[in-house]
TrEMBL record:
One of its GO terms (molecular function) is NAD binding. Residues 107-279 form the D-isomer specific 2-hydroxyacid dehydrogenase NAD-binding domain. It comes from the Bacteria. It holds the Pfam family 2-Hacid_dh_C. This is Phosphoglycerate dehydrogenase. Keywords: NAD, Oxidoreductase.
Amino acid sequence: MARPQVTVLQGDVAVQGLEFLQDLVDLVVVDADGLPAALPSTQALFLWDFFSDAAVDLVARAPRLTWVHVAAAGVDRLVTPELAASGVVVTNAHGVFDRRIAEYVLACVSAHLKDLPTTWQDQAGRRWRTRETTDLAGRTVLVVGAGGVGRACARLLGAVGMNCRLLARTARSDPEHGQVLGVDELSEAVGEADVVVVAAPLTAQTEGLVSRQVIARMRPGSFLVNVGRGRTVDQTALTDALLSGHLAGAALDTFQVEPLPPQDPLWDLPQVLVSPHTSSRTGSWRADLVAQFRRLCARWVAGETLHPVVDPELGFVPAARTAPPGG
């Protein structure tokens, strides 16, 4: 019996650690130029180069495709109405980045409330100035997005005494985090928060979610962190709020256009931390991504159910799908 073809789209960084799969599947590793020739016989596609725009129109170009795995949390570059209707299973790097991104968020919030930028500036200028900073404990945090990343952020920030509220697409009760707010409560909830963490995926519903109106409702002097997708936040309105002093600062790991253009004013704002989409890239992140795909691929070859899976119409893994079937 012919073995199924698994195609791996890699970019500048070669994927390593998939060798053992050669005993199970026909493994074809290509770059963007080689992908079109591989797609007609592809039954499973591993998007290691998750920023690539090469994997478009998959339903038409890959008639044998049954499964796509994306080595990233966001699948907004991939999911189309055609793919959603095709029955192709989509999985992502669910769980791999949660703790890593949460640690970045904790570091950013701590640096802001403890005013570490001023400390570094004073050290560079050999200035000895004592001053007061802010406690983390007791500060209110609103986490926009109640998926794995958002929940990990709430868990880690809560561990240092911050009061965390989660906000999701719909309101619900959560056994770990209490009452989760619904998106219709966003405008009111941001006015009660000292820190707003955006950890929502990019979907038709979340694009522009943190709008100019929402930013205007944020508490004066509050701080915004975006580790979700740049297009969930009105970047022009955010810049205006930072320039006016309405917001005290921001830590941004994702932007509407990436790389962030050199002429963008966010580069020059001292109260803003700009990082190039690196909050998730720590330690063994690449090895962990490969290990996750190996596990999923072994299940796929064995005909077992893959989990968790992305809802292609929603564009993310719903909370109800995070547990294995039957558990």
